[in-house]
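Lab manual, section 2.4: Encoding a predicted structure.

Procedure: take the sequence of the chain (431 residues), apply the prediction step described in section 2.3, and record the output as structure tokens. A sample record is shown.
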Amino acid sequence: MQLRISNIAKIKETTIDIDGITVIAGENNAGKSTIGKLLFAVFNSMNNMDEKIREEKRNKIYRTVIQVLQSYHGKRPDNYAAWVRRRNLFAKNIADNVMKYISGDIKQSRDDMDEVLQRGVKTASILENQEDLEVFLKECVNNLDPILNVSDDRIMAEVITRWFSRVFDNQVSPLWDEEAESKIELTIRGEKLTCLFRENTCIKWESDIHILHGAFYIDNPFVIDKISDPYGDLKITENHLVKFLQKEEEDLFEGIFDAVIAKDKMDDINAIIGKVITGDITINQEGEYCFKAGKDTRPLYVQNMSTGLKAFALLKMLLENGSIKEKDVLILDEPEIHLHPEWQLLYAQLIVLLQREFDLSLIITTHSPYFLDAIDVYSRKYNTSQAAHYYLAENDGVFSRLHDVTNHIDAIYKKLSEPMQMLENLRYSID
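Recorded output:
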């Protein structure tokens, strides 16, 4: 997978290869997080989008028919509950037939839309008077026409705009020229997806790629505190993550196959997690998530876990409930921040194994030479170094630039060691 972008936020132009683990290191305010946010927005806005648009269109048609019926001034029967059931069946039949018409399963012209609608009213006798039925059908045609005239491309462009606006807080366009055209080009196995933006709005998109995989963005271990009480002000990346962390509670069968398949690959991964987390995350009778270290210990609310434990617990929960699947995208923004150097090494080993076992596309930003070195060493230990790429992000005044240093990652170590050298020079001058 390759990502090419131009005129996005602080980045003027760059190309990033993502074949396994991609590490982006460098100074602050140099555009490191932009790459992960882009991938998160692209994959989640377009994940299985054809089916989502079709389902939303069907639901909109259904709601429109219900609305027309609600505004109908005929007398409702005394048995209102029975009337509601017939009304819902009536609306469902109409929505089903209109969707068949849209997909071409019903071969008729737009002029014959009333005949398409009449197919849906036969099995639910809610408007038995022919005159009332004709008035209703005319109102339906008038109300459904605007919906049917909106192309899927326009819907998709709006979905992309909304996702990117929320991920980037309405700052997709370049900071130096908001009217400049921004471009994102994602290539996977020779097939391309292209999105063009102007003034933070998607103005055009084209895709040969049918995205079926999700993306997870983790930049804050404290998001785990929200799974017991998800209300409040959450970023879109956090809200997305909380929904998957709560998956097991919402539906016991959700992700069941992926969870079982994942367990077959988890021996080495669990061994590493077990060095840090010696218990399980459970839900008590009040619906609160707790960490239970052993049968003789009291449960600890996840809010009271150490921040380092939370970082490992997030991955443990996503793996155990089957949320992380093969070939998904996992973005880790400075995961080492809350970790002791020893746990940084364990975390690096864990994500290298995750990439190998699940064939994930991993994007990692870091400031830590310990963590960077651990990724490099464990990638070589587990024979995945050929799929590892390293980039150095630098702030070049107005713009940010990302340099491919895969073949000379010493450039990153040099950059990260400069502050320590400054301290050494100061210490020498003082002494």
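Check your result against the sample. The longest strand covers residues 388-396.
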